């Protein structure tokens, strides 16, 4: 039994530890020595391919064994059909065009691409697991890159709610509502009524007020329970979503794996809340891409900014579109300070499973083009801070060509 809270540096390499496990017939999940491959050999991935006298051979990386133990195996010995298919798919997409195997294997650039691709897949799977262990919401997160060799982003920490930065204080709400049924029999207009605002949702949790109007949800002081129809954003992401690599130079993107109904809550835009002065300073340090993660909270006045560059949730990966399917709303739940709304993204139209999710990074522009401009109670003007000109690649018919 391992002693608790005690760790020592290990002087052996992973390969040596695996050897020890094998010799002692010990299983270790972290080292990849499992019951399955302790007795028999398990293919981790295939890293090369050749044809000798009409027969196909594959160079196998064995799970739990070092690279030096890789061995050529005839096709008939291999039962890993998925990995074989993967190898041929990867080869078809390898940079430099299609390759033909010689009697000694593939050209080095092709075999090294296969190994990089296999290692990338493992890194993305580990990151996917990490994201799913970190999320507090119901919706699962998948990760996929069938486009290039980019691995998980460095310098990104998944968070589920705002991280409060220096000089920022959230005041917890002091009062809640006393309704017997917040939707049907709201006492004094329920929580939104307390600030003369409208009840935001229908019985299915779809937003029914126009963008620009604030959403006041029920809070921890309210008498109602967790099934109250005025608790939507606080329940978090419920759809299964996928972070994927886009094929046209827009980096990562997010698509939904499930159908989303119009006006449904999809996700919150979270990050670190900082003062606008701090945002100004960081904006000068960030490159132009980094600057697009700064989202000014200018519902009433421009005092705070959400910085999702290094701390964020899945919204960090959602791309801009000039014709988006998500719309921003300002939401107040446990904190009623109007300078610190939460930013929630709702579907503007029905979204099919597999469709990419987008929102408009530059609401100022779109409101200017919208006849609502001037009517909007400030809410529509929330947008990431503009700095420099970034060309837009959203591909929408009504594309404005520049993000800022
Ligand atoms: Zn109520
Ligand atoms: Zn309430
Ligand atoms: Zn309620
Ligand atoms: Zn565009």
Automatic annotation (TrEMBL):
The keyword Cell membrane does not apply. Zn(2+) 1 binds at residues 177, 179, 182, 190. It is found in: Chromosome, Centromere; Nucleus. GO terms for molecular function: histone H3K9 trimethyltransferase activity; zinc ion binding. Zn(2+) 3 binds at residues 182, 218, 224, 228. Its EC number is 2.1.1.355. Residues 388-404 form the Post-SET domain. One of its GO terms (cellular component) is chromosome, centromeric region. Residues 239-362 form the SET domain. Residues 41-89 form the Chromo domain. Zn(2+) 2 binds at residues 177, 191, 218, 222. Zn(2+) 4 binds at residues 322, 392, 394, 399. It is an enzyme of class 2 (transferase). S-adenosyl-L-methionine binds at residues 250-252, 319-320, 361, 393. The keyword Calcium does not apply. PANTHER family: HISTONE-LYSINE N-METHYLTRANSFERASE SUV39H, HISTONE-LYSINE N-METHYLTRANSFERASE SUV39H1. Belongs to the class V-like SAM-binding methyltransferase superfamily. Histone-lysine methyltransferase family. Suvar3-9 subfamily. This is Histone-lysine N-methyltransferase. It comes from Phasianus colchicus (Common pheasant).
């Amino acid at each position: 039994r391992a002693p608790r809270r005690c760790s020592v540096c290990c002087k052996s390499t992973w390969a040596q530890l695996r050897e020890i496990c094998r010799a002692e017939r010990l299983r270790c999940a972290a080292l990849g020595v499992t019951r399955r491959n302790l007795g028999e050999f398990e293919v981790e991935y295939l890293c090369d391919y050749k044809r000798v006298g009409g027969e196909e051979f594959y160079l196998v990386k064995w799970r739990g064994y070092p690279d030096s133990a890789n061995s050529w195996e005839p096709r008939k010995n291999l039962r890993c059909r998925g990995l074989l298919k993967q190898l041929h798919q990867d080869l078809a997409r390898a940079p430099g065009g299609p390759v033909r195997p010689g009697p000694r294997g593939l050209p080095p650039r092709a075999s090294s691409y296969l190994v990089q691709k296999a290692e990338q897949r493992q890194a993305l799977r580990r990151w996917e697991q990490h994201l799913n262990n970190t999320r507090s919401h119901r919706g699962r997160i998948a990760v996929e890159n069938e486009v290039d060799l980019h691995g998980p982003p460095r310098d990104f920490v998944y968070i589920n709610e705002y991280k409060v930065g220096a000089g920022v204080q959230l005041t917890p709400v002091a009062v809640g509502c006393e309704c017997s049924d917040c939707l049907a029999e709201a006492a004094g207009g329920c929580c939104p009524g307390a600030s003369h605002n409208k009840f935001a949702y229908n019985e299915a949790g779809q937003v029914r007020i126009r963008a620009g109007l604030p959403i006041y949800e029920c809070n921890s002081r309210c008498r109602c329970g967790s099934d109250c129809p005025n608790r939507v954003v606080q329940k978090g992401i419920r759809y299964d979503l996928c972070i994927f690599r886009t094929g046209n130079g827009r980096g990562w993107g997010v698509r939904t794996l499930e159908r989303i109904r119009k006006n449904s809550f999809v996700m919150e835009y979270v990050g670190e809340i900082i003062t606008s002065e701090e945002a100004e300073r960081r904006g000068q340090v960030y490159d132009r891409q980094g600057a697009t993660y700064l989202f000014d909270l200018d519902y009433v006045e421009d005092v705070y900014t959400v910085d999702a560059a290094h701390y964020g949730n899945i919204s960090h990966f959602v791309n801009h579109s000039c014709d988006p399917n998500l719309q921003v709303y300002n939401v107040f739940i446990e904190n009623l300070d109007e300078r610190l709304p939460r930013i929630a993204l709702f579907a503007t139209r029905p979204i099919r499973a597999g469709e990419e999710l987008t929102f408009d990074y530059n609401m100022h522009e779109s409101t200017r083009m919208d006849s609502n401009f001037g009517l909007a109670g400030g809410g529509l003007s929330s947008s990431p801070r503009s700095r420099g000109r970034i060309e837009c690649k959203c591909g929408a018919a009504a594309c404005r060509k520049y993000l800022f």
